[in-house]
């Protein structure tokens, strides 16, 4: 039997994919569960695995070329004798036509001969990691399980639709402990291992692309996805609310903890997450049936990509994760995001987004609402400002301006104002709570 290999949908927003490289060549034997091709989705490069044993007979879409989701990209023959038949079928143009694309949030977990990543879910999932009798796990999880000798059947996945992630495997063998951080001023009764000190990352603006005058440079896959998402997001009625926050106390805390590997991005994400606990509607999203209140607080933080576009790695359950672990996770996410190695659940499960251009010295700006979320916070730079003190005197304080963009279908002005007030209270008067 000859199987069509279709371009899989690796994310809910993906409409076409680009073949990065074929791991197998025509005539090579293919084993079920083995990576056969690397596909560039709108956000990352993903290993795609075969559902069947057989032989890669014909490659229809070569490396570097693009194809719509559901379009045939190769043929797999179950036996060597069928390879010539598959080649003749491809030559005559009898490969299956692209599967019709309906307006659905995501494809089924399986598409023809290739495994496609299940659609992401903001609310998370506690479903078993079996789909129609098939174990659902990321390629990284399978690799780690093999290296560590872990049976994937014993692990409950935390990814979309119960998908097992690499972090699930690490936690199963105790390689990813989440130690509770201690208050900075707390006495130390016994030696406690501390995170390896790491220098604070120096933000760098992406270098401008060298182009000839008058040249038209086509969008890459990520830039196309950004364009589609931005156009879709403009369909929502949005409003914006600004707030000025004094950062002296937060800056003092940062000076004390940055030598332990804590980043300002982690501090801000933690502060936002704790504020969202009190304002669940700001962490919610619009659906045609009503307001979708998310069961977890997943903070997405915008990161510029070196070759254009942006991606939003997600700090999942940021309100429940200690500051030191959050910082380590963030560094790992950024490194893998820029290497295009993130799994879909690591960039598509955000429930609230932060865009921090303040690190580049930007005073204030407005952010565009991400698709599928109710809010995004734009953070400006913290600068010394001359202000009036309660005693009627003049003083100097460091202040930053933040602007929240909200979906007015579910969030109102009072909701946004209340959230910003609580965020300011944490940063200005109780930043120590971020270390608990």
Automatic annotation (TrEMBL):
Q: Where is this region: Disordered?
A: 86-139, 175-201
Q: Which InterPro entries does the record match to this protein?
A: 2-oxoA_DH_lipoyl-BS, 2-oxoacid_DH_actylTfrase, Biotin_lipoyl, CAT-like_dom_sf, E2/Pdx1, E3-bd_dom_sf, PSBD, Single_hybrid_motif
High-level lineage: Bacteria, Bacillati, Cyanobacteriota, Cyanophyceae, Oscillatoriophycideae
Query: Which residue intervals are annotated with compositional bias (Pro residues) in the record?
Result: 190-201
Which terms are listed as keywords in the entry? Acyltransferase, Lipoyl, Transferase
Q: Which Gene3D superfamilies match?
A: 2.40.50.100, Chloramphenicol acetyltransferase-like domain, E3-binding domain
The EC number of this protein is: 2.3.1.-
Q: Where is the Lipoyl-binding domain?
A: 2-77
Q: Which GO terms describe its cellular component?
A: pyruvate dehydrogenase complex
EC category name: transferase
Q: Name one GO biological process term.
A: pyruvate decarboxylation to acetyl-CoA
**Bias (Low complexity):** 86-129, 176-189
Describe the family membership recorded for this protein in Swiss-Prot or TrEMBL.
Answer: Belongs to the 2-oxoacid dehydrogenase family.
Domain of life (superkingdom) = Bacteria
Q: Decide whether keyword Aminoacyl-tRNA synthetase is in the record.
A: no
What positions does the domain Peripheral subunit-binding (PSBD) occupy? 136-173
What molecular function terms (GO) are annotated for this protein? dihydrolipoyllysine-residue acetyltransferase activity
Q: Pfam families given for it?
A: 2-oxoacid_dh, Biotin_lipoyl, E3_binding
- Cofactor (UniProt): (R)-lipoate
What name does UniProt use for this protein? Dihydrolipoamide acetyltransferase component of pyruvate dehydrogenase complex
Tagged with keyword Acyltransferase: yes
